[in-house]
Amino acid sequence: MIHLLKHRLQHARNFLILLFGLLLLGCVMVVGSTSLLLYSAFLRRDQRKQNARNAITRTFRMYFGVLQSLHILHLDLSDLDSLLNDRGVILASNHPSLLDALLINSRLSNVVCIMKEQVLKNVLFGHGARIAGYIPNKSIRDIVNVAGEELKIGSQLLLFPEGTRTRTATVNKLQATVAVIAKRTGADVQTILIESDSGFLGKGWPLYRVPSFPVHFRVRVGRRFSPTDNVKQMVAEIQGYFEQELAHPHSAASYTKHCCGSMEAQR
């Protein structure tokens, strides 16, 4: 009886934590996007885009800082800092959860994302993304053209070659978009690997499903691929690399030790 009561209390606690985290994210995105729209009206056109990207980075860094301080999430994102000064590179990441783009943007402030067109048109969330120059996934031709312009001026292009969140144990079959853009623009493809000890907010994970907190995420910089004329071969090489790197996830114990140790080192 006591064990059952403890279990129910733990579940109730985790549910409240989940609700708080999601509501906070919604508030941050709505308030941040609206504020950015108003503030950008007073800036020159050439200042708006980078200002928006800087604001997005600060906002998500603050959000994740709150979640870490409350031990809702444990994050190891420090490896991304090695990419801060890299210009005109394609960032290709696996996609295990809804938080992936937010995690990367919280450390890198010169990122342009490829997003669903309906999200960019959203009246609540889309203002900031549009001001930041994020690219709608309308057609491969439009994506390649706009991506090429952004890469020429030194932006980092973030995309998820799986096309959707990961459904399999390691990584979905990759789309050719990443290799096509690399071929057309001559930009290198820098892989990013996101690992977690939970399926939290992954494909098929309902928003109301309660995980065991804290949830651990580790983001690390992987191999860099040079562009080639053979699109199929490049996609196959990147696919094989992701599968090899993600085939043996960290155990929960070692993962927790690594993340917590890393956080202590960053304080």
Automatic annotation (TrEMBL):
The keyword Transmembrane helix applies. CDD domains: LPLAT_AGPAT-like. SUPFAM superfamilies: Glycerol-3-phosphate (1)-acyltransferase (SSF69593). Keywords: Acyltransferase, Membrane, Transferase, Transmembrane, Transmembrane helix. GO terms for molecular function: 1-acylglycerol-3-phosphate O-acyltransferase activity. It comes from Herminiimonas arsenicoxydans. This is Phospholipid/glycerol acyltransferase. GO terms for biological process: phosphatidic acid biosynthetic process.
